[in-house]
């Protein structure tokens, strides 16, 4: 009989209950006990929702982050917070979020604590808190969190399978603060894992899921060896280990993974269906093979009939050894499709969120156990929905297909090389040296948000809403003129979000009401659902931009989100390659660029904030991704005349390794986050002999501190050591929407003063 299990459940709650409980606790408005109770209620509900599974994950719930939880379990905290005595949960948030000196003093403690560094969890949009190692790092078991949750699960009759991050992945996820070799810590780490597994065994645990997703990445000999060392040392423990890999293919790690001395292996069969048969040949005959057959990364229904066609022979061959699960933890999908009231019935019939994905698994389990006839009606319904989706005119537009087929290489080319474009643009724009600009958004004030929600609720009409937004635009144009900025922006008052704003106006996009997924801590995002061919029925930004331009003689930047970012921040269709979807987005955005140009807009910025996020986990696949991503950007940007200046913006500093792609985008100007890296990022541009203009961010918009002109002058001078001054722009690191006007005005005053001082030769 096939075993059905889950790897992890979304912890925020279908209505983001945990988010609200956390934030209320952090604001001091509710008690620790109330937060703990909310946590327990959510765990209980989520376990109930997983009823009928043979094994249910325990320990996947977290008040902030599962990697931070693991650090606490291993007694491994950053040096700067060691020796803290007080409430454990409070200390946990202190490590997660940092704490100001004032708040520390209120608790009778000592000096500010910096928040843990966060980074992307593999290729998802979830962010974890990076473990910090030094050569002196020690570990000490603290199993209290796991044991408490196990006891809770036990009391509720849950068939509990504790979930841990495995030792090798744990080391790989961290950073050595002193440049020491993290792998040298393995020897110290393993006894703590062994003790933990023994403790779990002593509490009646049979199976432990031990996550080692770095097995789907490229590993050098030392890291591969670490796997062998680790699992040989853990093999005498009395629990059975299910080694879980996900987010991609094992490829050259398949032999290693198959032969580690554990009781079972989970693989992502959605990413790698073709890898399963060869893996069977490698897998020792006593081992469990868990197949992730339901996609834990997207919102589409599984093709159950096709999955069964594929699974039935495997089930016959493997018998009891076959387990089924989602491809990865369901942390990365929304909770419950049934809550959605505004998605139409047809679209809904194509979708599955976490609860529906678990239903699919139960169904697959029944079909394998009792035969397909036992679930005939459900299978027929699934089939009908998939056929409807495959053939729906809402998904397939012949006009879009024809437009994509008609894309020529020429469309990705500029009229002239950068140097001649730059000369024409300079003649037209007449900008001073060190031209100043901002990245696009100005504060999203309470008035803006009120007007938008009143409009959405039908309390004000479209005309009133337009007037409210125009007033905000006029305010930001006036402010920029007074500040003396050179290239202005309209401020993006009318945009709720840089992806949603465009998605709402493009055909092929749908929006859920409750489709939240955790991004980090209490923060969630609601990615739009890109379900069909992308068409732009009409211009999306021209009216606002034209209005803004009418208020000033200075150049007004048109402001767009690029195709790669639209793609990477959406749930995208699984019935065609991502590259194909990206090309459709590129055509739609190219049309918008051309409309802006026709409306007299001389500078157009195409944001690609998420270009880097789309990089595949394996380096070997980077160039393929970057090729189509850059091409999509070029198709978007390059329909314009030489005189029209194209900007792009990226708000991250890790670009050294994608410099060639950035150069290939060939934007006339790139603005980029640099202030926190002290302009070191520009080394990459210098080494690459990057020929175009750069606006290295001169202050950090994430902080409420007002930067001083002197500080920015020093930064720009540093930049000028690497990039000729005539190619430098002066701008903040990113958009200003999260700041207050009271912060923005003084900060930009200082920034403009810095540019003026440099022009005057200081
Ligand atoms: N133009 C956007 C803004 O200013 C860019 C945001 C981003 O890069 N994340 O808000
Ligand atoms: Zn940015």
UniProtKB/TrEMBL annotation:
The residues covered by the Cobalamin-independent methionine synthase MetE C-terminal/archaeal domain are 435-756
Q: What does the entry list as the binding residues for L-homocysteine?
A: 439-441, 492, 607
A Pfam match is Meth_synt_2
Give the co-factor note. Answer: Binds 1 zinc ion per subunit.
Q: Which residues bind Zn(2+)?
A: 649, 651, 673, 734
Claim: Glycoprotein is one of the keywords in the record: no
* Metabolic or biological pathway: Amino-acid biosynthesis; L-methionine biosynthesis via de novo pathway; L-methionine from L-homocysteine (MetE route): step 1/1
Q: Show where the Cobalamin-independent methionine synthase MetE N-terminal domain sits.
A: 5-317
Q: Which UniProt keywords apply?
A: Amino-acid biosynthesis, Metal-binding, Methionine biosynthesis, Methyltransferase, Repeat, Transferase, Zinc
Binding-site positions, L-methionine: 439-441, 492, 607
Q: Which cofactor does it need?
A: Zn(2+)
- Zinc: is it a keyword of this entry? yes
* Annotated active site: 702
UniProt GO molecular function: 5-methyltetrahydropteroyltriglutamate-homocysteine S-methyltransferase activity
Q: Which InterPro entries match?
A: Cbl-indep_Met_Synth_N (IPR013215), Cobalamin-indep_Met_synthase (IPR006276), Met_Synth_C/arc (IPR002629), UROD/MetE-like_sf (IPR038071)
**Gene Ontology biological process terms from the UniProt entry:** methylation
TM stretches of this protein: none
Q: Which domain of life is it from?
A: Bacteria
What NCBIfam families does UniProt report for this protein, alphabetically? met_syn_B12ind, PRK05222.1
Q: What does this protein do?
A: Catalyzes the transfer of a methyl group from 5-methyltetrahydrofolate to homocysteine resulting in methionine formation.
Family named by the database record: Belongs to the vitamin-B12 independent methionine synthase family.
HAMAP family listed in its UniProt record: Meth_synth (MF_00172)
User: Which named protein is this?
Assistant: 5-methyltetrahydropteroyltriglutamate--homocysteine methyltransferase
- In its UniProt entry, the species of origin is given as Diaphorobacter limosus
Q: What's the encoding gene here?
A: metE
């Amino acid at each position: 009989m096939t075993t059905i299990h889950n790897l992890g459940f979304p912890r925020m709650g279908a209505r983001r209950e945990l988010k609200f409980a956390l934030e209320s606790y952090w604001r001091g408005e509710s008690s620790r006990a109330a937060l703990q109770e909310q946590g327990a209620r959510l765990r209980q509900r989520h376990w109930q929702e997983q009823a009928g599974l043979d094994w249910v994950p325990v320990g996947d719930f977290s008040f902030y982050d599962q990697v931070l939880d693991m650090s606490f379990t291993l007694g491994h905290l950053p040096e700067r917070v060691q020796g803290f005595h007080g409430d454990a949960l409070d200390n946990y948030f202190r490590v997660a979020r940092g704490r100001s000196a004032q708040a520390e003093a209120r608790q009778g403690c000592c000096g500010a604590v910096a928040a843990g560094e966060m980074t992307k969890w593999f290729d998802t949009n979830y962010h974890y808190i990076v473990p910090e190692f030094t050569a002196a790092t020690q570990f000490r078991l603290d199993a209290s969190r796991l044991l408490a949750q196990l006891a809770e699960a036990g009391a509720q009759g849950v068939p509990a399978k504790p979930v841990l991050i495995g030792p090798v992945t744990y080391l790989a996820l961290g950073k050595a603060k002193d440049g020491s070799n993290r792998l040298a810590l393995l020897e110290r780490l393993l006894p703590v894992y062994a003790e933990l597994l023994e403790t779990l065994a002593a509490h009646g645990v049979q199976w432990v899921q031990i996550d080692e997703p770095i097995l789907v990445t490229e590993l050098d000999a030392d890291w591969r060896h670490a796997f062998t060392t680790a699992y040989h040392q853990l093999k005498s423990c009395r629990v059975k280990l299910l080694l879980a890999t996900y987010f991609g293919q094992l490829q050259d790690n398949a032999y290693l993974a198959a032969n580690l001395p554990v009781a079972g292996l989970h693989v992502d069969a959605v990413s790698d269906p073709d890898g399963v048969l060869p893996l069977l040949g490698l897998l020792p005959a006593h081992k469990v093979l868990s197949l992730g057959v339901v996609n834990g990364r997207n919102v589409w229904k599984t093709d159950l009939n096709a999955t069964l066609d594929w699974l039935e022979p495997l089930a016959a061959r493997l018998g009891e050894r076959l387990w089924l699960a989602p491809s990865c933890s369901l942390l990365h999908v929304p909770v419950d499709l049934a809550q959605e009231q505004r998605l139409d019935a047809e679209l809904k019939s194509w979708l599955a969120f976490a609860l529906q994905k678990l239903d699919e698994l139960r169904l697959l389990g029944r079909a394998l156990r009792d035969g397909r006839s036992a679930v005939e009606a459900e299978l027929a319904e699934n089939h009908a929905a998939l056929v409807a989706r495959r053939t729906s005119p809402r998904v397939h537009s012949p006009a879009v297909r024809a437009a994509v087929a008609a894309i020529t290489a020429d469309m990705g080319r500029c009229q002239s090389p950068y140097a001649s474009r730059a000369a024409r643009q300079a003649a037209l724009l007449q900008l001073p040296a060190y031209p100043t600009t901002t990245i696009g958004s100005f504060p999203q004030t309470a008035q803006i948000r009120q007007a938008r929600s009143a409009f959405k609720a039908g309390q004000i009409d479209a005309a009133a809403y337009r007037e409210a937004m125009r007033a905000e635009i006029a305010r930001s144009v006036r402010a920029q003129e007074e500040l003396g900025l050179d290239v202005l922006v309209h401020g993006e008052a009318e945009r709720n979000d840089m992806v949603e704003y465009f998605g709402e106006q493009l055909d092929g996009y749908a929006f859920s009401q409750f489709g939240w997924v955790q991004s980090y801590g209490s923060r969630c995002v609601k990615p739009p659902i890109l379900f069909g061919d992308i068409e732009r029925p009409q211009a999306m930004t021209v009216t606002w931009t034209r209005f803004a331009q009418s208020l000033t003689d200075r150049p007004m930047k048109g402001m767009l989100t690029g195709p790669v970012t639209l793609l990477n921040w959406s749930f995208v269709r699984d019935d065609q390659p991502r590259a194909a979807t990206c090309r459709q987005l590129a055509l739609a955005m190219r049309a918008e660029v051309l409309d802006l140009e026709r409306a007299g807009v001389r500078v157009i910025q195409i944001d690609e904030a998420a270009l880097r996020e789309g990089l595949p986990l394996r380096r070997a696949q980077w160039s393929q991704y970057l090729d189509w991503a850059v091409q999509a950007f070029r198709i978007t940007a390059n329909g314009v005349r030489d005189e029209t200046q194209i900007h792009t913006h990226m708000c991250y500093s890790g670009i050294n390794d994608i410099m060639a792609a950035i150069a290939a985008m060939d934007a006339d100007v790139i603005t980029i986050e640099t202030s926190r890296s002290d302009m070191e990022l520009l080394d990459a541009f210098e080494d690459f002999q990057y020929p175009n203009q750069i606006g290295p961010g001169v202050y950090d918009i994430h902080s409420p501190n007002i930067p001083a002109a002197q500080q920015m002058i020093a930064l720009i001078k540093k930049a000028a050591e690497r990039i000729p001054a005539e190619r430098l722009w002066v701008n903040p690191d990113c958009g200003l929407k999260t700041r207050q006007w009271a912060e923005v005005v003084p900060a930009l005053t200082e920034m403009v003063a810095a540019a003026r001082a440099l022009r005057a030769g200081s």
